[in-house]
From TrEMBL:
Protein name: tRNA-specific 2-thiouridylase MnmA
PANTHER family referenced in this protein's UniProt entry, alphabetically: MITOCHONDRIAL TRNA-SPECIFIC 2-THIOURIDYLASE 1 (PTHR11933:SF5), TRNA 5-METHYLAMINOMETHYL-2-THIOURIDYLATE -METHYLTRANSFERASE (PTHR11933)
Function, in words: Catalyzes the 2-thiolation of uridine at the wobble position (U34) of tRNA, leading to the formation of s(2)U34.
Domain tRNA-specific 2-thiouridylase MnmA-like central: 206-272
Domain of life: Bacteria
Length: 362
């Protein structure tokens, strides 16, 4: 097959490309220039898509003996990922930019271009497994639970999964690094990227304040309605947050308070005890079905609300176009704007059966 290997400059995508070459595919490497300021250098594990990363990807491609190109997707990334991220926070929601990037950049813009150029598949370094059952693709959790990225791939459609390759799905991170070292790849010990790639200093609140300005409001006790302090904007908070609240008045029982909800119109941030974070039902919009079929009636599943962790047994159904997820147990700190991803337990690795964007919780 003709395979386009997306090469970020990190160890995972490097080994994925190397495995595609070893499997006998006709591989071409491509690095996506996503940063509006590509001259910015990486600092340890923060930042990505820099000139340094492009150089690392090119050196790996040279060692593998494959053609290599840099494609400028910065404008598309800014519009579809960065601006969406800012708008979601301004609306009192907490988006997952990695999920948005996979959906709109790597498996929409990139895959569309790859197919138009005659490639059969796009290969990435994601930790997830793909299988074909009765002619339909199934997206599964990876063998490395700690690195599993099926959650941030859950919005992909069947037609996109049919053109995807995830060579690392059956591997654990330690083995991937060891393989990179054995192959002599210079990125074998390169630190993984953490936090949000377009906020390299890790200060999300400061980034959003620069983009949105200050929007003063009140911190309110959710139970009594008492005003407990002031803040510079709801975009500085997320549901479940405990630290950095700036409360003037301690709780009567001395226990910590958490962010319970955000009201962007009034500017209120409502806070309360941990027990008030408990969620038993999730309503999500824009449901997607990677296997292609919307389940009929209620389906038993495991619901996940964060990229790593935040899982509970559940039953799910579609009502009036919305995904309704009723948790058998309970979850805490479920933030609107995040994704709820549904899994079917399977001996060969849990299968992603659906996902949706969380609109509200009960």
């Amino acid at each position: 097959m003709r395979v386009l290997a997306a090469m970020s400059g990190g160890v995972d995508s490097a080994v994925a490309a190397a495995r595609a070459v070893a499997a006998g595919h006709d591989v071409t490497g491509v690095h996506l220039a996503l940063s509006a300021k590509p001259g910015t250098l990486r600092t340890g594990s923060r930042g990505c898509c820099t000139i340094e990363d492009a150089g690392d990807a090119r050196r790996v491609a040279d060692m593998l003996g494959i053609p290599f190109y840099v494609w400028d997707f910065a404008e598309r990334f800014t519009e579809d990922v960065v601006e969406d991220f800012v708008a979601e926070y301004a609306a009192g929601r907490t988006p997952n930019p990695c999920l948005t990037c996979n959906e709109r950049i790597k498996f929409a813009a990139l895959l569309d271009k790859a197919i138009a150029l005659g490639f059969d598949a796009v290969c990435t370094g994601h930790y997830a497994r793909l299988s074909v059952v009765d002619g339909r693709p199934e997206l599964r959790r990876s063998a490395d639970d700690g690195k599993d990225q099926s959650y941030v791939l859950a919005t992909l459609r069947p037609d996109q999964l049919r053109h995807a390759m995830f060579p690392l799905g059956d591997s654990v991170k330690a083995d991937v690094r060891a393989e990179a070292a054995d192959r002599g790849l210079l990125v074998a010990e390169k630190p993984d990227s953490h936090d949000i790639c377009f906020i390299p200093d890790g200060d999300t609140r400061a980034f959003l304040t620069r983009r949105l300005g200050e929007r003063p409001g009140e911190l309110v006790d959710d139970e009594t309605g008492a005003v407990l302090g002031a803040h510079a904007g709801v975009h500085g908070f997320t549901v479940g947050q405990r630290h950095g609240l700036g409360l003037r008045v301690p709780a009567p029982d001395g226990r910590p308070r958490y962010v319970l909800s955000l009201e962007p119109v009034s500017g209120s941030v409502r806070v309360g005890g941990a027990e008030r974070l408990a969620v038993r039902e999730i309503v999500a919009t824009r449901p997607t079905w990677p296997t292609g079929d919307q389940p009929a009636g209620e389906v038993e599943c495991v619901a996940q609300v964060r990229a790593h962790g935040g899982t509970a047994p559940a039953t799910a159904s579609v009502v009036d176009g919305e995904l309704r997820v009723r948790l058998t147990g309970e979850l805490r700190g479920v933030a609107p704007g995040q994704a709820v991803v549904l899994y079917r337990e399977d001996p060969a690795g849990d299968v992603v059966i659906g996902s949706g964007r969380i609109a509200m919780t009960r």
